[in-house]
Amino acid sequence: MTTAAITHSTTAAPLAALLPARRGVAWKVGPAPQLIRAGAAMSRLTQNGRALDVVELNGRVEVYADRADRFPVAPDAVITETGPDPVAALRALVLRVILPRLEREAARDTVVAHGREQLIIDGAQHLNEVGFALIDHGAHVDPVTREDGGVGIEWTADNGAEWGLWALPANGNLTLTYDGPVDGLYGLLPLLLPSTEGHEPSDTGSAFTRHLTDRFPQLRPLSDDEVVFGRRDDASGYIALPAKDEPTNYADDDRRIVAHLSSLGADLLLTAVPHMV
User: Fold this and answer.
1) Rounded to whole angstroms, how far apart are CA atoms 102 and 268?
2) Which 8-state DSSP code applies to residue 22?
3) Residues sharing a CB contact under 8 Å with residue 122, sequence separation 6 or more, in sequence order
């Protein structure tokens, strides 16, 4: 089957427009080089050596991350076209799940071929990219070296919150830390959390945890002073009071919290920059 015989996906171009440029290079849309599903419309998105195949068939849109060593069998993300904004839903999965997964896979290959030191070097390049985007939005960014071998950047937001972004010698993704008022996370969390579909606010826990789960039902109370989110192969983290002895029987948007958010890809963080300054 030649590429000329494959109908182009109508989802690919609007999806590419919603994904961030990397090192000045935007995603490009082109013909799919191979037929993944018979009768499907397909297009390929490419950027800096990365490729995603967007496949449409029978009201479903599937995304397959290109892995040169094997033919795609199962999609990396699937949505239906019946939702209110299927392209936005697909963008969320690409940023939150697919691209970070590719970073982890690349990191495993890097460790085998070049050792963990190279993993930190690669992570520092991601930090630089996000750091310059933060600077462009007015943040003053300071580089930091950690005792555990990791590197990071720190900055203070306009609301006084202290942020940190870290490349740790772990899996190739980045980790974000936060110390400040709880409402300083309200712009970021919708980018990190899965869809609200199927989630109901928790009626357990404390006034503090319910204040968060009422707004974000994807959060789960772990205790009276902490909520968590995430699952395997997805962004994850916790939001908690700074100390265990702080009262949990009241909450408001100014309440000081600490947060630790992990398994984050550089692409997702670049889209999140306006919510972190």
Assistant:
1) 13
2) B
3) 106, 107, 110, 167, 172
Give the sign of the dihedral formed by CA 88, CA 179, CA 261, CA 271.
positive
Distance (Å, whole) CA 51 – CA 33: 11
Helix H or strand E encompassing 156: strand 151-156
Contacts (Cβ under 8 Å, ≥6 apart) of 222: 228, 238
- pLDDT (tens digit per residue) in 165-196: 999 866 789 999 999 999 999 999 999 999 88
Match 């490419």 to its residue by tokens.
46
Q: What kind and span of H or E run contains 211?
A: helix 207-215
CA triple 119-121-126, angle to 5 deg: 95
> 116-136 vs 99-114: helix axis angle to the nearest 10?
140
Can you give the pTM of this predicted structure? Answer: 0.91
Q: Measure CA 149 to chain center.
A: 23
* 20 neighbors 6 (Cβ within 8 angstroms): no
Contact (Cβ atoms closer than 8 angstroms) between residue 202 and residue 221: yes
Radius of gyration of the chain (CA): 20
